[in-house]
Amino acid sequence: MLYPQRFTQFTREHADTVAALLCGLLLFLGWFALHLGALGLAFLLLPAAYVIGGYESAREGLTTLFKEKELDVDLLMIVAAIGAASLGLWRGEYHLIIDGAILILIFAISGALEGYAMQRTERSIRSLMSLTPDTARALHQGREEEVPITQLKVGDEIVVKPGELIPTDGIILSGYSTLNQAAITGESLPVEKTVGAEVFAGTLNGYGGLQIKVHKPAQSSLIMRVIRLVEQAKTEAPPSQEFIDRFEKGYAKVIVVAGILLATLPPFLWGWDWETTIYRALTFLVVASPCALMAAIMPTLLSGIANGARQGILFKNGAQLEKIGKVRAIAFDKTGTLTTGQVQVFQVISVSEYTKADVLKTAASVESYSEHPIGKAIVQAAGNLDWVGAVQVQAIPGQGIVGIAQEQQVIVGNAIFVQQYVTNLPEELREMAQSLEQEGKTVVWVAKNPTPNSSLQALKGANVMGIIAIADEVRVEAAVTITRLKKLGIEQIVMLTGDNQETAYSIAKAVGIDRVYAQLLPEDKLDVIRRLQQQYQTVAMVGDGINDAPALAQASVGIAMGISGSDVALETADIVLMADRLEKIAVAMHLGRRSQSIVKQNIVVALGFIMLLLVGNFLGNINLPIGVIGHEGSTVLVTLSGLRLLK
């Protein structure tokens, strides 16, 4: 039973592809039967090819005709194909039935390809919804009860335990913890939260238990606003798509009207006989059908997509390959995009009587017991050094950590915390620390007391050993990428981040970005993208986090980091950099611009052939087989031209 179910599911999900494959198979078998002279078998197979391959186009064309009172290319292709088949039966030239089937097959393949470029919005929303739990621990008369999120009301109190996701926005009533807000704000380090601080749904609680008061309905939480923004931005049809739809309808209308006039007026105006008139009218429908125009675009874009895939650039559809070549402004997220999103030891500064290695080893002895990202970065930096783990380690949340190593008390933390243990902080180190903090670095002070107090109380007498600067690592290729983009003529490059101003400006300066927007929520990033679009029209957004999803969806071209990117960012984006290599953005733009150039060339060739064939048909210098050859030949020519992008 399992295999039939899988087959049914496959055919349901890939119905257009299955129809195109069956149409192609029946077309080939019908052609082979004609070649062998088996007319009965051919007349059985070829109509089946027409029905299977043309059903969807005929349905859409007739629906548009009767409901919207409009003619479109789908209906035009069906009329042209049936006209060719009818003429073939009438004149006994059965190869014309094959020509009509080929027209239908081309459209069936096109419809299947378009189908795979759709359906991202629903998956994006499902991924976003998974960020928040379905239930919360609500406090009712001092007892915890599991209740659905949808039943929470303003004023309810909930409990969140260590390591759990925050279920809804609220205000902390009691407790202290660090929250990983990278998914929402893009901040590179966990943020310390205590009584009175606001917390957001979808953020990850650290080591402390929290009691939270719901201060807004669950449907108004930040993560739910992100979901709605993504849904809205993905359903807005871009102007270029609307223009293409109008062009197709207008083109089909003109051709059908012209075909009807050509089939009725010549006997009265020029004295043509009716057989010649109908023959030329059907030839007109065949040579005027827009297959060459369609082939002028799709093979080029598919070749560009294949080329990009070989280089680690995943284009989700051909429209984005075109759009990225038109980008005039580009916005970068900071954490995880311009930076790796992994904090590391940036610099170690020691006082004269100690070495940098001494400072790292001493700090690692106590930080090895910490789960904080800063502690992990220090331990990683001291990995090749010989150090011994401390005992009696005690962490003071938000301040520092103390312990005893080699019979000496070790103190590691911020300046205010360490100052409780030392007589004074060296002025030179204080100035260096201040300078590093202005650059957006996190500074950790390291001190030790030769005569430790067994209770680890903060008694003066410790000696400062030095400071350790912690920073998010800037991607090595970031600065080169920004330089290349400027050389490509990108008019505006900006940084969007939820991080603080100092960190944002220091990273921007390092990579060569002049315009910075800091301390942004997801909706703020969306607003910046909209303002850029008003000024520059085609705008790209590069990001990796859930907080970037609305901006990625709103941008003309959304670009996500493939390795570090969240599932939602990957689903929402139009282009994915599979290896997180920023320099591939410039490659993608070059591909986009080449595709535009080739598409324009192909359109000129396709329209030129159509005009030439139309004039030849009107003057009576071509017959239907020559018209079909010219039509198919121009289609093949522009298709081969599009394949140039494979190089």
Question: What is the structure about, briefly put?
Answer:
By secondary structure, the protein is of the alpha+beta class. The strands form 4 sheets. A 7-stranded mixed beta sheet has the order 10-22-21-20-11-18-19, sandwiched between helices. Strands 2-1-3-9-4-7 form a 6-stranded antiparallel beta sheet, with no helix packed on it.
Task: List its traits.
647 residues; alpha+beta; seven-stranded mixed sheet; 25 helices; elongated
Structural description of this entry:
There is one protein chain. This protein has a seven-stranded mixed β-sheet, with helices on both faces. A six-stranded antiparallel β-sheet has the order 2-1-3-9-4-7, with no helix packed on it. The protein is 53% helix and 18% strand. Helix 10 (274-288) runs antiparallel to helix 24 and helix 12 crosses helix 13. With 647 residues, it is of the alpha+beta class. The model is unreliable at 117-121 and 237-241 (pLDDT under 50). The radius of gyration is 33 Å and the shape is elongated. The relative contact order is 0.11. It has 25 helices and 22 strands.
Query: If you compute it from the alpha carbons, what radius of gyration comes out, rounded to the nearest whole angstrom?
Result: 33 Å
Derived structural class:
alpha+beta
Q: Could you tell me the strand content as a percent range?
A: 15-25%
How would you sum up the major sheet? 7 strands, mixed
User: Can you count the beta strands?
Assistant: 22
Question: Could you tell me how far the N terminus lies from the C terminus, measured between alpha carbons in angstroms?
Answer: 46 Å
How many H/I helices?
25
- Report helical residue fraction: 40-55%
Mean pLDDT: 81
Flag low-confidence runs.
117-121, 237-241
Strand order of the largest sheet: 10-22-21-20-11-18-19
- Shape label: elongated
